[in-house]
């Protein structure tokens, strides 16, 4: 039987529902049924309002995820649990390996390697506000920029009592960022004695081992009014490698070589192989009797290459970088928490919460793709390097000139080579290791007093948070030292060792770059970032006066918030001398003062067709140091014609202030998977379309068609913050109903309810950069001068970079339906049968670019990568759980369904059905305090649908599970 208990919690005087159920959906979405009376009849504060109310008369759509639901998933991260919600789009998680390897996303939110986020309504994690006990939490970072969202991997999992998810805009109540909704993590405030969990899980292939250990202890002393809960946890997740799953062994899904005939437009292998790619002028090539686009047949050691060692570079010469990445990134986390409450009097309480969390995580990429020369497109010294004739390894006997000196001035020698690409195998794989520490401390004074017959509640809260991240990147190269080692041998003095870029290498075999050469040119890159939060809030709520239908309730409050952040790359990177993704330092801060007010007016009660009718409204004014003042408001209503049926609707305005990263981020590159229409290779339009050919030639593509890079490669998008950004604004309409038939209770159900909600969100001034695909296509097909000016090409025609400075660009319009069904039977064979289902249906998700771009509206429903990031927009998602549960034994089956989506190339990613099973045993002779749980996720071994255009390992990690079954065992004590 579903039981609802009510208890007062800390935070901003947060008081909320504790839903304790033996079976909840593994997707972990639950709404409190509208037929269960509150214990003692006390009104409480629930997420979505600051005024105490009967939780059964909630006028906004709120889902609840409790510890029982979390346990049913077999997952060790609260982010992974929440990302299964049908109303959530997924978001960054530990299945995303690209975060540290392809640069910062072009929306200014920074690289968050090893982090995990929650994204409601597909509007981006930065538009979902995350609270802890009703108070803001410090944003996360991974020493790769300044992200705009909370890293849920920095919150100890065993600290969580439950999570309340408000699926509506809520800026009038909670301030900036609450555009798509609010995720409010409620922590444990009371506990008696010891609770402990130990879990081990692994994939059927024998990898991805996950260990999770949790311990907490609670002390209750009613005589002194003291309550304390403290605990700690440790989680370790081992990697799954791309080489160990067929879908990810090549850049194209299930490919078997770099020239697999099933992919006529190219597999996407790299043009930077270990054997090298040498693009020289005809005059240079003729010196030794070779062509102009060359590679080696095999590594050449002990001597310099000759004409017999070279061969023409073809697609078969390309390098398969895919098997050197992670499908699941290694992640180690541990932390501790302390929650304390002391009654200072019958009406005044002091509360404090301390939280510490440490994360060690790693992402990994293939060996560094070193590219030098005027056609390399690095945008730094590497493009200006000339290889001197005196370099002892230069097989051509003449200086390979870039045409410019190292300071960028014209050189005496004209350019006679386009570029040399060499996969830096001898330097080892690129490894990005993050060390992230997060600490928060909060204190609350709260209490109550009477004014006449009306009781009023007050609270004053302060929170301070620090996120400190450091990253070490091994496998980078110092361009200045490389230039010296390739330059005149007479200038290579001291520690300098002449560098051999010509001899080639084999993965796992011989190479021509010696340890002495490596020591001189390589370095470990040290980056760091920091985010700080200081937040003060004060709230007052109570009843003003009595109306025939009930009391008029009000709440007022004030908030002062100060946020600061910084990002400091390694000095070598800041100097522009790195050989990997370039980035720039950033720092900034802002503060805001905000006031709000809320009112609830009961209009009718206990009348025919009007069992209850009420109105609720709220307004908030914010004054930001960055852009000034803003006011938003919300209004909602609730109507219960009869006790079993509730209707509600509302309107809300929302605000999202530009984040610190969006305002102050320095110029950084993001390597996106984009097709260039100007290539002469298969899939390009240069040869077949005269308009495209003319526009591409005008943009710097050689007229002879020699630019023939295959499709599916990566192109750099250079983004940068802007202090000219305006805040995003949004309007949200919601309507819904809950039906909980009393006639069903006592017969075939102990509880049953059906809830359906409609939402419509219109977002304006969305902060983003113009998509690189749109820029390339508008230049190639339309000759748009603004788009063409934002594209930089090398002398060979390759795209060296696309400018993507952040702007207030798009309008986003989305609408859809959510539905939740909950059923629990009377006792059956000593237990109960439960059925729960939660579904989300997207009616519309349209992105309208500004009129000046003259670009079509993007219709995202039913598509993949509509917004040029790995993100599916399935029209329909469903989670459903059927279970039988008793105190001693239980079993459940959870079904997860995701409808089909289509890629831009027309490829259909089919509908996906996952099945999860779990059983538990809790012996009665131990008073059911000990429980053994076993489960298998993806029991039918369903593979994710392959994705041809995804940046990740040929599937969308924000939406689908990793390939393979995941089994786990858990031992729990003190349930």
Derived from helix and strand composition plus strand pairing, the structural class reads mainly beta
Question: What share of the residues lie within helices?
Answer: under 10%
Return Rg in Å: 30 Å
The residue-averaged pLDDT reads: 91
The outline comes out as elongated
Span from first to last CA? 16 Å
Largest sheet geometry:
22 strands, antiparallel, barrel
The number of strands is 43
Strand content: over 45%
The helix count comes to 11
Q: Segments where pLDDT lies below 50 for 5+ residues?
A: 1-41
Describe the structure.
The protein is mainly β. The protein is built from 11 helices and 43 strands. The longest helix has 11 residues, at 772-782. The protein is elongated, with a radius of gyration of 30 Å.
Q: How is the topology of this model organized?
A:
Elements (H helix, E strand, L loop, with lengths): L2 E6 L6 E6 L41 E5 H7 L4 H5 L5 E3 L28 E2 L7 E5 L2 E2 L23 E7 L4 H4 L6 E7 L5 E11 L6 E12 L4 E12 L2 E2 L35 E4 L1 H7 L4 E4 L13 E3 L13 E3 L2 E13 L4 E25 L44 E35 L2 E24 L1 H8 L28 H7 E26 L2 E19 L2 H4 L11 E22 L2 E15 L3 E15 L2 E12 L3 H5 L3 E6 L16 H9 L15 E6 L8 E12 L11 E18 L3 H11 L2 H5 L1 E3 L5 E5 L3 E22 L2 E18 L9 E2 L16 E10 L3 E10 L2 E2 L5 E2 L2 E10 L8 E8 L28 E8 L2
Parallel strand pairs: 6-9, 29-33
Antiparallel strand pairs: 1-2, 3-8, 4-5, 6-7, 8-9, 10-11, 10-43, 11-12, 12-18, 13-17, 14-15, 14-20, 15-16, 18-19, 19-20, 20-21, 21-22, 22-23, 23-24, 24-25, 25-26, 26-27, 27-30, 28-29, 30-31, 31-34, 32-33, 34-35, 35-36, 35-37, 37-38, 38-41, 39-40, 41-42, 42-43
Helix pairs in contact: 9-10
